[in-house]
């Protein structure tokens, strides 16, 4: 598998059988919006696919549970910051479930690692990469010559564009906080420099290195984190250890609204759970995975409706095909076509995790099956196509739902009406046969006639052949 690394600006081979992957997680001061969901869905699908190919993935995604936003929300509500963080951490995991995202292998909380963060900062101070000013500790960017290598930003240009406030304590405008001196009413922990709390950039570094070691195989997140967050992570980690922090850096594009980045500060967002409630988990996953992960993606109701129709169309094929009897042989040419599409699916995902191309291959399986049916091909071929599609789509978190079943008497009555209609058609009583079909449709039961007999579908969902 080859993945495009932001650091090297080229495709890099992922050769290891155990993949240590760190993905930047949420700051838990509010519910996640649908834009926040993109990296969670994309890198969840990457993890699943790697595991389906026999690799072991250790997936770490942090919880930032101490931050200015959390403190501000706590002040607004008149509660302790820890209470805000605990509530929205719980809601975050509930939203992951709603998005069909598997829980990470590890979900470390920043507050659980503060003592190790203090030790890490001490090491940077001892090595001359950090300095203390009135209880604050800053990283000295000038001591790390490779600063800017991830973002491609030139140090001199950054310095020329930076400004220092009159009361700024930093030696250089680019230096960033590793430790912030405690202020009244804020969470604080003991340290050699006085009570305070860690800086955001330091939190991720310490949690990632403690659980995964260095170098990480993959470090991932949204491309809005490239600078300064991920750039600052590299500077700290490599200054402290002298080793490469991460081999491959993956960044997804932003979700936009009419070309503008979706953000709570701009008010142009929708909460993830509200979008899922309206369109369904699989429509949201399909929406994201049917686009290239590195490119920006514009959010609209029209795009979600299109994704929902696409998902329903695939399920229409699956549930209909799976209700057919296993009769006859799979045509050799069709079997070869399915094998070719399976190869295409894996080839697309192996090329920088091209989920859009992979979903295109899934849709081609549906198209091939429809052509087989139109040509009078047997049901066994259609069932084989459905089985392949389900197997390939599983690591993407798509198309695994079984059709709902009518229960007991309801199922028997539907089947009785299907058989009665078939008898009426044989007697050429088409008016009454059509009336039965129309009334069943009004009740949410769709009938489809084919060479194998009549298929009935409950509210567009396939049940059985008659």
Topology:
Layout: E1 2-5, E2 10-13, E3 18-23, H1 37-52, E4 56-61, H2 68-77, H3 81-98, H4 114-126, E5 130-133, E6 136-139, H5 155-161, E7 176-181, E8 196-198, H6 200-212, E9 216-222, H7 226-241, E10 246-252, E11 255-257, E12 260-261, H8 272-279, H9 281-289, E13 297-298, H10 301-322, H11 332-350, H12 355-374, H13 379-393, H14 408-426, H15 430-442, E14 445-450, E15 453-458, E16 461-465
Parallel strand pairs: 3-4, 3-9, 9-10, 11-13
Antiparallel strand pairs: 1-2, 5-6, 6-7, 7-8, 11-12, 14-15, 15-16
Helix pairs in contact: 2-3, 6-7, 8-9, 9-10, 10-13, 11-12, 11-13, 12-13, 14-15
Write up this protein:
This protein is of the alpha/beta class and 466 residues long. The protein contains 15 helices and 16 strands. It has a four-stranded parallel β-sheet with strand order 4-3-9-10, with helices on both faces. Strand 9, helix 7 (226-241) and strand 10 form a beta-alpha-beta unit. The longest helix is centred in the C-terminal third of the chain and has 22 residues, at 301-322. The chain starts with a strand and ends with a strand. 43% of the residues are buried. The model is unreliable at 460-466 (pLDDT under 50).
């Amino acid at each position: 598998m080859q993945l495009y690394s932001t650091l090297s600006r080229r495709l890099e081979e992922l050769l290891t059988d155990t993949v240590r992957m760190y993905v930047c997680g949420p700051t838990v001061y509010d519910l996640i919006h649908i834009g926040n969901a993109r990296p969670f869905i994309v890198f969840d699908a990457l993890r699943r696919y790697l595991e389906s190919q026999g690799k072991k993935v250790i997936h770490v995604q942090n919880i930032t549970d101490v931050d200015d936003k959390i403190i501000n929300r706590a002040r607004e509500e008149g509660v302790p910051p820890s209470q805000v963080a605990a509530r929205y951490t719980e809601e975050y995991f509930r939203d992951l479930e709603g998005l069909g995202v598997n829980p990470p292998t590890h979900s470390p909380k920043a507050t659980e690692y503060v003592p190790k963060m203090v030790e890490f900062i001490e090491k940077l101070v001892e090595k001359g990469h950090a300095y203390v000013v009135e209880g604050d500790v800053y990283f000295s960017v000038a001591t790390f010559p490779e600063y800017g290598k991830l973002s491609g930003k030139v140090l001199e240009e950054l310095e020329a564009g930076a400004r220092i406030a009159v009361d700024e304590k930093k030696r250089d405008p680019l230096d960033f906080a590793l430790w912030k001196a405690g202020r009244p009413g804020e969470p604080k922990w003991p340290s050699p420099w006085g009570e305070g709390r860690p800086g955001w950039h330091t939190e991720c570094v310490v949690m990632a290195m403690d659980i995964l070691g260095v170098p990480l195989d993959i470090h991932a997140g949204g491309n809005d984190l490239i600078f300064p967050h991920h750039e600052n992570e590299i500077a700290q980690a490599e200054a402290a250890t002298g080793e490469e922090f991460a081999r491959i850096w993956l960044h997804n594009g932003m979700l936009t609204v009419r070309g503008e980045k979706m953000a709570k500060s701009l008010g142009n967002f929708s909460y993830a759970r509200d979008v899922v409630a309206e369109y369904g988990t699989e429509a949201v996953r399909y929406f994201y995975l049917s686009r290239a992960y590195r490119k920006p993606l514009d959010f609209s109701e029209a795009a979600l409706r299109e994704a929902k129709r696409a998902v329903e169309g695939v399920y229409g094929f699956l549930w209909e095909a799976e209700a057919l009897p296993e009769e006859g042989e799979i045509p050799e040419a069709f079997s070869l076509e399915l094998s070719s599409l399976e190869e295409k699916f894996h080839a697309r995902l192996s090329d920088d995790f091209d989920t859009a191309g992979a979903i295109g291959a899934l849709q081609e399986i549906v198209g091939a099956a429809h052509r087989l049916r139109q040509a009078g091909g047997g049901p066994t071929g259609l069932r084989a196509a459905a089985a392949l599609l389900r197997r390939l789509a599983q690591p993407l978190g798509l198309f695994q739902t079984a059709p709902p079943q009518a229960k007991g008497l309801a199922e028997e009555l539907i089947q009785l009406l299907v058989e009665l209609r078939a008898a009426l058609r044989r007697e050429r009583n088409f008016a009454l046969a059509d009336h039965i079909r129309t009334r069943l449709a009004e009740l949410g039961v769709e009938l489809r006639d084919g060479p194998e007999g009549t298929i009935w579908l409950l509210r567009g969902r396939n049940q059985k052949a008659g």
